[in-house]
Amino acid sequence: MRTALIVLALAAAAAPAAAQYRPGLPAVNPAPPRADPDAPNHDAAGAFSAWNARNGRPSILVFWNRELIEDGASQYDGVVTTRADGAAERAGYVARGYGTTVAGSAAAATVTSETRVYAERSTHSRYGFRDDIFAKKVESAMVGAFLSAGAKVMDREALIRNLSAGKSRDERLDIQHLESVAMKQGVQYLVEVLPDPSAASPTGVSFTVKVTHLPSATVRGQFVTTGEPPAGPARLVAGPSGFERRAAESRTTPELVGAQVAYETMGRLR
To answer: Residue 264 in contact with residue 228, Cβ under 8 Å?
Structure first.
């Protein structure tokens, strides 16, 4: 009996990877660990984080849904709009000009008109997006991925407002000039992210990303991406003819799309 126990102990020691799920059944090997589809992105974030620390956390300004255009000063177009409410059988007159006026008539009906005259900035350079909520989630995820990797991300609107506090009213209207001054406030890198709707894209969007080193005005990278996150592992599903291998469910969420754009951008910054 003692010899049999020793033999069983040696056999168990020779197969440490084996495991028994139920008494009396043959031992089976443990399932291999599931592959992490985001492992390459984790590596990219780690490499960026190391580069970022070595270089003293250079400041990054993100132009989301906006590009840096060549106009050094803002241009404005004069716009006149007129809106009329009400109806009249025989309107006698309608006053013209700025503001709201009421016109009388023999039938005592009224017509109210409003004319607005204003200046509209023609150099705002904004791109369109298919869904505002989707856009906000993608933008938040992208900035969040940079922040999680230790990046120093500057806010465009905050920089402009800080600069405009000491400017006259006319100077505050020149947004292009304020942007130029803001980018000289120690900002090292400008990241422009320009989304366009794309029916051929698996995410429904095509992102053009440009990375510029501002002090030297040199382009460090420019690329187009759909922002599609890595696919998950395939899975075995029981079918009529046995087990079938099926593709994983889609991981195309706005949060993962934004993070994917960030990880791909990080590779151009180091």
So the answer is: no
Weakest mean pLDDT among 78-92, 153-167, 244-258? 78-92
Per-residue pLDDT tens digits for 186-203: 889 999 999 988 889 999
In this prediction, residue 50 carries a pLDDT of: 97
- CA atoms in the 13 A half-sphere facing the CB of 260: 21
Beta strands in 86-178 (DSSP E): 99-103, 111-121, 152-154
CA distance 189 to 154: 10
Tokens of 258: 């934004």
Cβ atoms < 10 Å from Cβ of 4: 8
Q: Identify whether the C-beta of residue 270 lies closer than 8 Å to the C-beta of residue 51.
A: yes
Dihedral (CA of 123, 204, 142, 217) sign: negative
Identify the bridge partners of residue 207 per DSSP, sorted by sequence position: 195, 225
DSSP-derived secondary structure letter, 69: -
What the block records as the tokens of 80 is: 């006149």
3-state secondary structure of 100: strand
